[in-house]
Design brief:
By secondary structure, the chain is an alpha/beta fold. The chain has 14 helices and 12 strands. The chain is 37% helix and 17% strand. The chain has a 7-stranded mixed sheet, with helices on both faces. A 5-stranded mixed sheet has the order 8-7-9-6-10, sandwiched between helices.
Length: 370
């Protein structure tokens, strides 16, 4: 039984990407993509340090990562950590975050399902664990309405995704396949030209006419709509119950083994943050936008922020069954060999927290640690 979710769907887009087996070499080093947000939260006054002096948390400056944006902005995560200091770093996409996790540059990350799957598979189950969900939804196919009026019109057009092998890229490749069209997953060439484009530059590329549309998370989708694009498909509508994981919380297996108390504290902060977001959507939206302003230099305009925020659900539930489906998409596209995902989830600490609050446990779809 899933954990309680907001009655309002919110837009938190997750640009979570993965360094898939054959794709890993194409990802930039995390140092080039990572951005230290210099937003180290103040250590709780007089707070007791846990087993580690610091915990390094990675996330994206996207609304799909609202748990991190708001939890760090409001100090909710830091409060649970006491004297253990949060050090946060932002990334553009999943491959660079996975590299950072593997290198020990971050300990815990907010990230999409595809990079989680690939990172776990590449490390043969020894690199990371998914310890919680964070968000569902918030991904849309937006197009130039002058060039594309129906889904069939996508054939022969240039459509952007955030990065080769990222969560949206895999979803779009699967959708193309189900249409019966052919695209080479590596090059993006075929019946549709799949253009891998950084979310920061996609709006400019669309404005200049270099792109005909994009399959992207929020707020990039709403930014394109503000430039005249039209939402042709909401990925949420493709899923049973209109729910699919877009953001997980992962942890380095080494850090989990050495500092379980720190991991539990971060999870307590995440659960508290999600509860506050769902109970206070307007204040949470403003907080997330304030955090984005600090990271990017300017806030999102209401015409972008509001529809983006409304398209996502914040949830502690990792929606594990949908991750299994997304793993199948990666295999089907040829970007990943069939992975053994047994043990990818360790939801024990999360379910302990939920139980203490009188809330139902969340499920791991049979993929939990034994």
């Amino acid at each position: 039984m899933p954990a309680p979710r907001s009655t309002v769907r919110r837009g938190l887009a997750a640009v979570a990407a993965l360094p898939l087996l054959a794709v890993a070499a194409t990802a930039c080093g995390y140092g080039s993509e990572a951005k230290d947000d210099d937003a180290k939260a103040n250590v709780s006054a007089g707070g007791k340090k846990l087993s580690s002096d610091t915990v390094k948390i990675g996330y994206f400056p996207n609304l799909t990562h609202a748990t991190a944006l708001v939890g760090i902005q409001e100090g909710t995560i830091q409060k649970e950590l006491g004297g253990t200091e949060v050090e946060s770093t932002t990334f553009n996409a999943g491959p660079s975050e996975i590299e950072a996790l593997n290198a020990g540059s971050i300990d815990i990350g907010f990230i999409g399902p595809s990079p989680s799957i690939n990172g776990y598979s590449k490390s043969q189950g020894k690199g990371l664990r998914i310890i919680s969900g964070s968000a569902s939804g918030g991904v849309k196919l937006v197009v130039n309405p002058k060039k594309i009026k129906t889904l069939d019109d996508l054939k022969g057009k240039k459509i952007a995704t955030p990065q080769l092998g990222n969560t949206q890229d895999v979803a779009f490749l699967n959708w193309i396949s189900e249409k019966g069209w052919k695209v080479d997953a590596q090059s993006g060439k075929g019946d549709v030209s799949v253009v891998r484009s950084d979310n920061k530059v996609t709006p400019d590329a669309y404005r200049s006419g270099d792109l005909d549309g994009a399959w992207v998370p929020e707020p990039t989708a709403s930014k394109l709509v503000s430039q005249g694009a039209k939402v042709l498909l909401n990925e949420t509508d493709l899923w049973p119950d209109k729910k699919f994981v877009i953001t997980n919380i992962i942890v380095s297996q080494k850090f989990l083994d050495e500092h379980p108390d720190v991991v539990e504290a971060v999870l307590k902060g995440s659960v508290a943050t999600n509860k506050w977001i769902n109970a206070n959507p307007d204040e949470a939206k403003a907080s997330a936008n304030k955090a984005l302003e600090k990271l990017s230099g300017k806030p999102l305009a209401p015409e972008i922020l509001d529809p983006a925020w409304e398209s996502i659900e914040i949830t502690d539930d990792p929606l594990a069954e949908t991750l299994k489906t997304q793993a199948g998409y990666s295999v089907k596209s040829g970007l990943l060999k069939k992975p053994d995902l047994q043990g990818i989830y360790d939801l024990g600490p999360l379910n302990k927290i939920l139980k203490a609050e009188g809330r139902p446990a969340v499920a791991d779809a049979g993929l939990g640690v034994k």
